[in-house]
Specification:
Spore Coat Polysaccharide Biosynthesis Protein SpsA, Chain A; 2 domains; 17% strand; 14 helices
Length: 400
């Protein structure tokens, strides 16, 4: 075969080159992020309400919830919020409240319905029980280090900062599906987040771990303004930025505990995440296809029947992808689990291009047994209930 490239082959080579360049640039943004000055510690810390939105029993739930009660912070309240007195997690929540006392742990059981997003409904039920102005929202599957509250609250003491997020690292991967999800988060999603933050390419709000003032939340309309959105955290961040307030990505990393029993579960969650990106940031969703170096390098090998040109391009794409991911996992996240799973990364990348295509074509999504139509702007419209669930529909895959 001629070494010249056809129009289709040139089209495939663009993501190979652009993707490899992107991954190399992501290392630069990681270095810049690590050099950012840490917010000065205050002489006096404000009291904080830490909210854990719970929906059902999850893997390692006791550990993730107890971590909220073991913070190295002067004065704080923990709220565990569920939407039903029949929630199977409620006995565990009562045990933890008995362990740490009602002054530390508040249980909220409120069956409010502001819209189809169950996580927002759960938040609305928790807020009346919050004692303090500073709110920290942490998903139920997130394991918090002891200094988590200090890292999240310090930047928020700047009146120009509207909300603070933290990176979350996937952990406790036991099944193949969980290893693939770990790579999705730690070797794909997080580098993109830091790149966007350091370059200002887009704003975001990582709802799994976010701190915000209660008055700021009220200024954007409170939970009621977010209850119709598929990506409520992005919408919250967008509205806060529209107020002229800034966003800080805190210099701490929390662990999110993975709980995926099968590859089918990975596929469904991957498609849902891609749908969330498409709903919240359509232009970013389409732009991501341009940086998928490995899948398009594989396609180029197929088109050119594994000739030397395509083989070299695939080899270079794999070397860059593996090397950058390894640097991110080791230097950026201290993630030994990810390093052990790294051989799966090319296959995950190829499958992720398929989930991107599925998200592009699908206009419906299913959460907690209820089917929703995705409307313009990322709004949800209920279609029909497929099955009954102990937890509310349209809850985030990471808790709530």
């Amino acid at each position: 075969m001629s070494s010249g490239l056809t129009a289709l082959e040139w089209l495939c080579s663009v993501p190979v080159a652009a993707g490899s360049l992107f991954w190399l640039l992501s290392l630069g943004t990681l270095a810049r992020f690590r050099r950012r000055p840490i917010a000065p510690l205050p002489a006096e810390w404000p009291p904080v309400t830490l909210i854990k939105l719970v929906c059902g029993l999850e893997k390692n739930l006791r550990d993730t919830l107890r971590s909220a009660c073991l913070q190295n912070y002067p004065v704080y309240q923990v709220i565990f919020s569920v939407r039903s007195p029949e929630d199977p997690a409620l006995p565990l929540l009562e045990e933890i409240q008995a362990e740490f006392g009602a002054e530390r742990v508040t249980l909220a059981v409120e069956n409010l319905h502001l819209g189809p997003n169950g996580k927002v409904n759960n938040l609305a039920g928790a807020l009346p029980h919050a004692r303090y102005e500073v709110l920290v929202l942490s998903d139920s599957d997130v394991l918090l280090p002891p200094d988590y509250l200090r890292a999240m609250v310090a930047p928020l003491l700047d009146p120009g900062v509207g909300y603070v997020s933290s990176l979350y690292r996937a952990a406790s991967a036991e099944t193949l599906a969980e290893r693939w999800m770990l790579l999705t988060l730690n070797a794909d999603f997080l580098p993109s987040v830091v790149f966007a933050y350091e370059t200002g390419a887009s704003h975001f709000c990582l709802g799994a771990s976010v701190a915000v003032r209660r008055t700021t939340l009220e200024r954007i309309g409170g939970p009621a303004a977010l209850a119709d959105y598929l990506v409520e955290d992005y919408e919250m961040g967008r509205r806060i930025v529209a107020l002229g307030l800034g966003h800080v990505l805190a210099p701490c990393v929390v662990d999110t505990v993975l709980d995926l029993p099968s590859m089918g579960a990975w596929w469904r969650q991957q498609v849902q995440w891609d749908q969330k990106t498409r709903a919240a940031r359509p232009w970013a969703f389409f732009a991501t296809v341009v940086i998928r170096s490995v899948p398009f390098a594989v396609l180029l090998v197929v088109l050119r029947r594994a000739d030397p040109v395509s083989a070299v391009m695939l080899a270079m794409a794999l070397i860059v992808r593996w090397s950058v991911a390894a640097a991110w996992l080791q230097w950026g996240l201290r993630d030994r689990e990810g390093l052990r799973a790294l051989l799966w990364l090319p296959l995950r990348d190829v499958a992720a291009l398929g989930s991107w295509a599925a998200a592009l074509l699908r206009r419906k999504t299913v959460w907690r047994g209820e089917e929703f139509l995705l409307k313009r702007g990322g709004r949800l419209h209920g279609v029909r209930t497929r099955r009954q669930s102990g937890c509310d529909a349209a809850a985030d895959p990471h808790g709530g």
